[in-house]
Amino acid sequence: MGAIAFWDAIGGKLRMPHLKACLAEGMALSALLVAVATAGVISLIAHFLVGAAKSLFTLRTWWSAGLEMTGAGVLVGGITYAVGVFLH
């Protein structure tokens, strides 16, 4: 879920000026939201697929390992976002 934002290439922190700059350049808010939602969905699917592939090397079922990896990705993304907000 940490991928659901505009990221600074150096620090990886959410920066609202990026959003304002895109809107100022004429990018429609709806297009921006679609892009952000698409990035989030792709990230969640990728986490699930990596977890499912991990099940080939463990005794877990593919769906269980996939959900575990997806949950870990959401948790780590949320923690990273919170740390970035705190340090900013």
Tell me about this structure.
This protein is mainly α and 88 residues long. The chain has one domain (16-87). It contains three helices and no strands. α2 (29-54) crosses α3.
Blueprint of the fold:
Elements: H1 16-24, H2 29-54, H3 62-87
Helix pairs in contact: 2-3
Order of helices and strands: HHH
Beginning-to-end CA distance, first to last residue = 19 Å
Helix content: 55-70%
Mean pLDDT: 80
- Give the overall shape, derived from the CA principal axes: elongated
Look at the helices and sheets and give the structural class. Answer: mainly alpha
- What integer value in Å does the Rg equal? 16 Å
Beta strand %:
under 5%
Number of strands: 0
Largest sheet descriptor: none
- Low-confidence stretches are 1-10
Total of DSSP H or I helical runs spanning 4+ residues: 3
Tally of domains: 1
Would you kindly provide a brief summary of this structure?
The protein is mainly α and 88 residues long. 69% of the residues lie in helices and 0% in strands.
Q: Which properties best describe this structure?
A:
88 residues; 3 helices; mainly alpha; single chain
